[in-house]
Give the backbone structure.
Amino acid sequence: MGSYILKRLISAIPVLLGITIIVFLIMSLIPGDPATAILGAYATPENVAKINSDLGLDKPLVNRYFIWLFNMLTGDFGRSYSLNRPVIDEIFERFNATLILAGTAFVLCSILGILAGVVSAARQYGVADKIITFIVLIGISIPSFFLGMMMILLFAVNLRWLPVSGMFAIYGGGDLPDLINHLIMPALALAAVATGVIARLSRSAMLEVLRQDYIRTARAKGVPERRVIAGHALRAAMVNIIPILGIQAGFVLSGAVYIEIVFQWPGVGRMLVDAILKRDLLLVQGGVVIVAACYVLFNIAVDVAQSLLDPRIKT
């Protein structure tokens, strides 16, 4: 297992390098002068020249990339011009909020999706299967940001049950119940589509397992149906369900960007949008690389979990 994990980590290095190249090129090829956009009304020739020198924008593109990459490997992600603080400090401060939102949404979509898929497969063509399929299709069809806005309109504006936006109350609050109150709507909106996808594919994986001979043998021996479903079928189906969870983790992490904008959640996604609008190159590049690295590491963890359930995957 140790050698398998090491091989997966080594294979992730080219992926991360490719991500850094793509992010750097995209930010470098955006039309307009970053120094002028950063300075705004203070964009005098002297100030523009100073910003270009500080950011290394007066150097060739290849040199700029390797300087940025070397600094990043040594832990120096640069300094945000729009916020006047180290990029890495801002990212880690915002990442806690994103982790709370995306982590909660991922736990919700995993539990609800697998549970819905198992119940739907166990009651194939029954009333429960039809109801779950209908709800899942609605969940998949509605964009998360639109669902979030409708939830704000219903639960925050009309019913006044939940707060409109933010992570904590502006005055007072700041405790766990206040956090949960603010988290309910964005987490549910973010988890909706992923829950539907996981439920549909979990149902397919469960149906495939339930048709196997050893399941019919267990039922013929009089094993209780609940034990057949939970103890035999679900464990075998998890080999195919776990990769789905990995893919949806990436969807949840990327979807947090627009959910954070809708609910004004103070996470990395909202930070990246603000940084792009302000042309804060180092903040955008550092934020995207950190998020991409987390996604790569999570996929490695998914592969390891899958190999624990099915050792043949390591070969």
Notes: The two ends are 11 Å apart (CA to CA). The mean pLDDT is 85. Residues 225-262 form the longest helix (38 residues).
